[in-house]
Amino acid sequence: MKRKQKPKLAVFKFASCDGCQLSLLDCEDELLLLADAVRIANFAEASRAVLRGPYDITLVEGSITTAHDAERIREIRARSRFLMTIGACATAGGVQALRNYRDVKEFTRIVYARPDYIDTLATSTPIADHVKVDFELRGCPIDKRQLLEVLAALLAGRGPKVASHSVCVQCKLRGNVCVMVAHGTPCLGPVTHAGCGALCPTYHRGCYGCFGPAETTNTKGIEGALLAAGASHEDIARAYATFNAAAPPFRKAQEEQLVQIRLKEGPRG
Amino acid sequence: MARTIKVDYLARVEGEGALTIRFKGDKPSAVELRIFEPPRFFEAFLRGRAHLEVPDIVARICGICPVAYQMSACHAIEDALGIHPGGAIRALRRLLYCGEWIESHGLHVFMLHAPDFLGYEDAIAMAKNHREWVARGLGIKKAGNAIVTALGGREIHPINVKIGGFYRAPTVAELAALLPDLSRALEDAEMCLEWMAKFDFPAFERDYEYVALRHPDEYPFSEGRIVSSKGIDIDARDYEAHFAEEHVPHSTALHAVVLGRGDYQCGPLARFNLNFDHLGERARAAAERIHFVPPCNNPYKSLLARGVELIQALDEAIRIIESYTPPEAPAITAAPRRATGYGCTEAPRGMLWHKYTMDEAGLVEDARIVPPTSQNQKCIERDLWQLAPALAAMPHAAATRRAEQAVRNFDPCISCSTHFLRLSIERED
Ligand code: SF4
Ligand code: SF4
User: Fold this and answer.
1) What confidence score (pLDDT) does residue B33 get?
2) How does residue B374 score in pLDDT terms, banded at 50, 70 and 90?
3) A37, B32, B288, B377 - which has most CB atoms within 10 Å?
4) Considering its fold, how many domains does chain B have in total?
């Protein structure tokens, strides 16, 4: 084995807010150490340097919203050994997927005076809809401790330790009082993927689902508790329609609420 | 001789953009700062959302300055509701904003801009010869992030910001724990400013119209009138009567102009020039030590303006924490009503203006957001026009780097800049 070269790390961005890749630069204590362990081969936000692939580890932020980007992700995949998506945009389509079930032409007219200058697909889709993804890291944004854990695991050649249970479990581990039981605050914690350390309940608010659906979810199961806590069907539908709106379990849960709303309204005119 | 400087991907800026300068002889024939971030349609899908959800949603416009988005949204919606949180809530909000300025300026000054002045590809390469300074920079940035994390729950997209205040107010002990790192960061920031003052600043000046908020007695964050160096002095609600935006084919970001005059500059250099008299003693003394006083019309020295603002924000954060007593309630509340509200705050990279119209139930009917980069975009292009003759005389690689450096003067936040508004004027080509 003569391969003494350090592994190449590349970061690519699609439609996103830059927050997930910024998480890497927010690792102030570890950044210089990480830079000693890898070669930054492509990371536009941090460096002018561009090294050719293949890349050993590729981090992808953002969702696919243009035909050009659909092409670009295929090229990146072809040059990547291990491709990991970071964040809700790359993993579930992100906040921009709120367009998916709406009229994008209308959206463009609302926002832009010259819609003809705008190039966009009608949908925002996750990276895995386009190419094979080796690992997905949840969150809007991702949690930087999880990111470091996965990078450390990859560099050491072991499997990453990332929990797949719900925020609810993390809340219990942290010893929080349940905001739903104690204060009647609607909370998506029972159906949301762990990773944040149950932040919102710790700050006395309900989880709004920014880590997306947990591995196994029972959205029907918490509907009653949410209604009892004072949320309306409209509130619940909107809660699922945020940063992981296009993740199938959240999409389905939203549709169930929309059905309830229609039933409640009764037959129209 | 026809010549083109082309940068396909602008590196070390937030978001994705490209730059093309075409020359005829040594005169530019076209300057295009192209922003090709795909549109994300925030103003469209904010319609129909509950007003309480808006701070969480608009945070996702930008991972680098989410606090600015949350603060502008809160101020605009509170304006519509007719509430004005004061006292400890106001102080905590200033503290949160200090945190964001510190981490964002720290990122820009040390990791994005300084490598230009010293000729490195990035801060990591720079660390090989200047590890101490990079480590100090990271320490300063970390102190800012620690504030946002303590108050907001996490550094990116804080979860604790609420219309009317916060979900939970921090305890005195939680904030006091930040003090040692903040004091160290403040001393480091003063040293760093003196170090950066010795950089080689390209000679370049232009007669800018600076636009920033101005408060009667504070360095501006969230409150004050919109003023300019050429006589504008208006309330945030009158922004649309004095400014307009143009949609140009080469960019998904709109270009803002002062009606009847054209491009303007917002951001640290504008704030510095318009509010120097409201800097705290410590920041002002640091600026005076390096002979950096207004008027300064050299955009490369925005680096120093950020350095001074780092000191200002660290100093103010320490003062707020030292005099903190928790508020009685973490937030004040008000029943929704049909109204339109306006909010304008100073994001690290410049003014960020929001306007929301809500219905009786507090659902958003219309949202309009004008981020700093759309305001500065025309100004950046004008700088490059004026810089062009100097670029034409330089070797290609050096000219490319200088052009990129001139763009980075504005710390453009390209992810933020791509989802705006209806424009009021159009350019006929
Ligand atoms: S997942 Fe959230 S934080 Fe990450 S890039 Fe997308 S919008 Fe930003
Ligand atoms: S919304 Fe849920 S997943 Fe996101 S930070 Fe809050 S508790 Fe965690």
Assistant:
1) 84
2) confident
3) B377
4) 1
Looking at residue B117, which CATH number applies to its domain?
1.10.645.10
* Domain assignment present for B121: yes
pLDDT at A1 (0 to 100): 47
Sequential DSSP letters for B280-338: -HHHHHHHHHTT--S----GGGHHHHHHHHHHHHHHHHHHHHHT----SSSB------S
Counting ligand 2 atoms within 8 A of each CB, the residue from A140, A174, A191, A207 with the most, and so the one to mutate, is A207
* A18 touches B60 (CB < 8 A): no
- Report the C-alpha gap between B259 and A267 in whole angstroms: 51
The residues near B302 (Cβ < 8 Å, ≥ 6 apart) are B267, B268, B269, B409, B410, B411
The three-point CA angle A11-A16-A21 to 5° equals: 35
User: Which of B313, B229, B235, B310 shows the shortest CA–CA distance to B265?
Assistant: B229
The 3-state DSSP composition of chain B as helix, strand, coil percent (nearest 5) reads 45, 20, 35
Cα–Cα distance measured from residue B299 to residue B317, given in angstroms and rounded to the nearest whole number = 27
The CA B84 to ligand 1 mean position distance, Å, reads 31
Q: For chain B, give the longest Cα–Cα distance.
A: 70
* Joined tokens for residue B184: 């160290």
Residue B378 lies in a domain: yes
Q: State how far the Cα of B367 lies from the Cα of A183, in Å rounded to an integer.
A: 32
Q: Which residues contact B13 (CB under 8 A, 6 or more apart)?
A: A45, B112, B407, B408, B411, B412, B413, B414
Residue type at position A170: Q
Task: Return the residue of A nearest to B152 by Cα.
Answer: A203
In chain A, domain spans: 8-156, 167-265
Question: Smallest Cα–Cα separation from A60: which of A91, A34, A31?
Answer: A91
Any idea what DSSP says for residue A244? T
Amino acid letter, B273 = N
> Which ipTM score applies to this complex?
0.94
Taking 50 as the pLDDT cut, the residues of chain A under it are 1-2, 269
pLDDT reading at B419 higher than 50:
no
In 3-state terms chain A splits into helix, strand, coil percentages (rounded to 5) of 45, 15, 40
pLDDT value at position B426?
Answer: 29
Stretch 391-410 of chain B: residues touching chain A, C-beta under 8 Å: 404
d(CA B219, CA B278): 5
Alpha carbon distance B38, B329 (integer Å)? 41
Would the pTM of this model clear 0.90, i.e. be above it? yes
Residue of chain B whose Cα is closest to the Cα of A24: B156
Query: What is the CATH class of A8-156?
Result: alpha beta
Strands, sheet with A80-86, edge to edge from the N-terminal-most edge strand: A39-43, A8-13, A55-61, A80-86, A135-137
Give the CA radius of gyration of chain A: 20
Per the model's pLDDT, the better-predicted residue between B42 and B104 turns out to be B104
Judge if the upstream peptide bond of residue A213 is cis by omega within 30 degrees of 0.
Answer: no
For B231-249, how does the pLDDT look when each residue is reduced to its tens digit (9 = 90+)? Answer: 999 999 999 999 988 776 6
User: Does B222 fall in a domain?
Assistant: yes
Task: Say if residues A124 and A93 touch (Cβ distance below 8 Å).
Answer: yes
How do residues B382-405 score in pLDDT, each as one tens digit? 999 999 999 988 998 899 899 999
Residue B11 has its nearest CB partner, among A48, A96, A111, at: A48
In the three-class reduction of DSSP (H, G, I as helix; E, B as strand; rest coil), residue B18 is classed as strand
* pLDDT more than 70, % of chain B: 94
C-beta atoms of A40 and B124 within 8 A: yes
Q: Which of A9, A12, A28 has the highest number of chain B CBs within 10 A, making it the mutation to test binding with B?
A: A28
- Give the HSE-up count for residue B370: Cα atoms under 13 Å, Cβ half-sphere: 28
Structure tokens at A85: 């998506």
The most confident of the ranges A103-107, B201-205, B258-262 is: B201-205
Nearest residue to B152 (alpha-carbon basis) of B76, B72, B59, B79 = B59
Does residue B414 lie within any of the structural domains? Answer: no
Note down the domain range covering B392. Answer: 42-408
